[in-house]
């Protein structure tokens, strides 16, 4: 890639034999993602997600990034009302509270029991559970302090 091309607002590159446009201008990227999204339904997905649906994990293949065509359009129309700017600001506060609760739990545990070895899958499962319960359902749960709370056990 020539440096002169990289400094442009939009430039073309190749991913092996596939031509791609790279958008560097934040305002243009916002316009593509928000206002003109319906013209950009078949964007390049994650590697292996949309190309080999049968061989990919279902969770990956059904994400907005991996979907194409009408499936993408339908999913975006379904999700868009839930992720407006004001709703995201409200959710951010709730997510930050869940994160703070998690940090305080491990700080207290480390003070009382010493250094900890933490299974990250378990940690992020509990954190995601708390975020979903709080942001989507308005429930205040603490899956770190209450290890077997009903929301966590039913969500597993």
UniProtKB/TrEMBL annotation:
Membrane topology: Peripheral membrane protein
One Gene Ontology CC term in the entry: endoplasmic reticulum membrane
Task performed by this protein: May be involved in the metabolism of insect hormones and in the breakdown of synthetic insecticides.
Pfam families for this protein: p450 (PF00067)
Metal-binding among keywords: yes
Database matches in InterPro entries: Cyt_P450, Cyt_P450_E_grp-II, Cyt_P450_sf, Insect_CytP450_Detox
Protein's name according to its UniProt entry: Probable cytochrome P450 9f2
Major site of localization recorded for this protein: endoplasmic reticulum
Taxonomy, superkingdom: Eukaryota
Organismal lineage: Eukaryota, Metazoa, Ecdysozoa, Arthropoda, Hexapoda
Keyword line: Endoplasmic reticulum, Heme, Iron, Membrane, Metal-binding, Microsome, Monooxygenase, Oxidoreductase
Entry's Gene Ontology molecular function annotations: heme binding; iron ion binding; monooxygenase activity; oxidoreductase activity, acting on paired donors, with incorporation or reduction of molecular oxygen
Names of the cofactor(s): heme
Family that this chain belongs to: Belongs to the cytochrome P450 family.
Subcellular location per the Swiss-Prot or TrEMBL entry: Endoplasmic reticulum membrane; Microsome membrane
């Amino acid at each position: 890639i020539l440096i002169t091309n990289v400094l442009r607002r939009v430039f073309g590159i190749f991913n092996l034999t596939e031509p791609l446009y790279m958008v560097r201008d934040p305002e243009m990227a916002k316009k593509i993602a928000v206002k003109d999204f319906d013209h950009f339904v078949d964007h390049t997905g994650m590697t292996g997600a949309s190309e080999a649906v049968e061989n990919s994990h279902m969770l990956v293949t059904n994400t907005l990034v991996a979907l194409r065509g009408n499936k993408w359009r339908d999913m975006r129309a379904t999700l868009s009302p839930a992720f407006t700017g004001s709703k995201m600001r409200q959710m951010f506060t709730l997510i930050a509270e869940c994160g703070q609760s998690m940090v305080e739990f491990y700080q207290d545990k480390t003070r009382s029991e010493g250094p900890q070895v933490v299974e990250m899958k378990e940690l992020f499962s509990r954190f995601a559970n708390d975020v979903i319960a709080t942001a989507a359902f308005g429930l205040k749960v603490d899956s770190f302090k209450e290890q077997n709370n009903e929301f966590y056990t039913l969500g597993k």
